[in-house]
Amino acid sequence: MSDPTLHLAVALDGLGWHPAAWRLSCAEPTAPLHAHWWSGLAAEAERGTLDLLTIEDSLALQSSRPDGPDGRTDQLRGRLDAVQIAARIAPSTRHIGLVPTTSVTHTEPFHLSTAVATLDHVSGGRAGWRPRVSGTSAEARHFGRRDIPGFDPHRLDEPATVRLVDELFAEATDAVEVVRWLWDSWQDDAVIRDVATGRFIDRDRLHYIDFTGRWFSVKGPSIVPRPPQGQPPVAVLAHAATAYAFAAGQADIVFVTPADAGQAAEIVTEVRAAEVAAGRTGPPLRILADLGVVLDETPTLARRRRDRLDDLDDTEHASDAAIFTGTPALLADLVADWHRAGVDGFRLRPAVLPDDLTTIVRALVPALRDRGLFRHRYPGGTLRDLLGLPEPVNRYAAPSPA
Q1: Nearest to residue 164, comparing CAs of 152, 177, 179?
Q2: Residue 27's CB: how many other CB atoms inside 10 A?
Q3: Dihedral of alpha carbons 126, 132, 138, 142, sign
Q4: Sign of the CA dihedral 356, 358, 364, 367?
Q5: Which residues are within 8 A (CB) of 347 and not within 5 positions of it... i.e. 6 or more apart?
Q6: Is cis: bond before 390, omega within 30 of 0?
Q7: pLDDT of 3 above 90
Q8: Which of 40, 163, 260, 387 is the most buried (most CB within 10 A)?
């Protein structure tokens, strides 16, 4: 029997990843604006012993266009802040990792560091963070601090676009580095709480980070004590070489988008090469394949569900990730096949919520357990423990004597 080290995550977004999901979901269209919706989804994901859930977010309204609003009124628009959702559902869960998405392009890293550190404290060490680049002019116009030129997403090899992408990822690299330094700016034993002497903290164990770069100048220290995990895991969605390099240098988890097992193996090889090029010395990236899912009891019924969704949206749904349409048993076979190709796990994108999430938990997870690919219970501990990531040493801590 295989060692059950497969990692399984779910990506939550509104009422599902298909643009017409709100028209077939059993939930009210306004459900994503209420706390009990997110608590219910988290509870269901935790029932399936999933490693983590991610919460989508962006600095612009959802749109079928690559940049700017599309004027459509037949698709879900509007969302709540991902970090605040995660903080709200943290007390109602015990084991599952909570990974909100935030932009690092227009958001101050000091604010990001305190938000994620706070989430790690209130969740008891189950926070993660997915930084994303905001490369559209529509997002930039919400802030008015800089101009980001529009570009054709189908012509990403144009020199001006290559320069823009490289600049955005260079800024993102600095942002994540600042956040990580701030998480370490309190040593683990900085809080003393000695009532007899009246000393609450040891000021010598709080550190200025004194970071100065092209985009940020941050003094530090943080206003939040070091997170329980020390460094909450950082996750990056990556589709190409620039993003693989970013993940290799800054992340703990990378979500990739192969089309099949063969491409999954190729991407794993490319990511591992990026780690070598980045001089990565820590544990290797946990590579999770993103996969949209439309599930039902038979392949025919699943195909009908997908066709119905496409008909309601008046177009065939396309995605950056492959979309599986079929039964949980067939999906379990695909998971096993791609896992053999080298991916460490999967982040599944349910087409319709809560329907496809319920099927993942109550049908796919048992099928994976039957194949010896997935655990039956949580082992306990932090999100880093679930992912098999060692506890990070604070960069300011004195080295242990030899």
Answers
A1: 152
A2: 19
A3: positive
A4: negative
A5: 9, 10, 11, 54, 255, 288, 289, 290, 291
A6: no
A7: no
A8: 387
What confidence category does residue 1 fall into, taking pLDDT thresholds of 50, 70 and 90?
A: very low
290: left (phi over 0), alpha (psi -120 to 50) or beta: beta
- pLDDT at residue 341, rounded to an integer: 96
Which of the four CATH numbers 3.20.20.30, 3.30.230.10, 3.40.50.150, 3.30.750.24 does domain 7-12+22-63+75-146+232-260+280-300+318-386 have? 3.20.20.30
Structure tokens at 294: 């439309």
- Vertex 364 angle, CA 359 and 370, to 5°: 145
Which residues, in sequence order, are CB contacts of 225 under 8 Å at separation 6+? Answer: 117, 121, 186, 190, 191
Find out whether 232 and 129 touch, Cβ atoms under 8 Å. Answer: yes
What is the percentage of the chain residues whose pLDDT exceeds 90? 85
Q: Which of 102, 75, 83 is nearest to 15 (CA)?
A: 75
Mean pLDDT along residues 51-59: 97
CB 26 within 8 A of CB 357: no
Instruction: Tell me the pTM.
Output: 0.95
Evaluate whether 293 touches 260 at the Cβ level (below 8 Å). no
Give the residue carrying structure tokens 């109550």: 362
Residue reference for tokens 């999906």: 331
Q: How many CB atoms lie within 10 A of CB 235?
A: 28
Contact 291, 320 (CB under 8 A): no
Task: List the one residue out of 61, 65, 75 whose CA is nearest residue 313.
Answer: 75
The string of pLDDT tens digits covering residues 346-361 is 999 999 999 999 999 9
Burial of 188 (0-12, 13-18, 19+ CB in 10 A): middle
Contact 149, 164 (CB under 8 A): yes
Mean pLDDT of 339-347: 97
The pLDDT-based confidence of 380 (bands split at 50, 70, 90) is very high
Residue 156 has pLDDT above 80, yes or no: no
What is the rounded CA–CA span in Å between residue 198 and residue 356?
A: 55
| Axis crossing angle, helix 241-250 with helix 261-277, rounded to the nearest 10 | 60
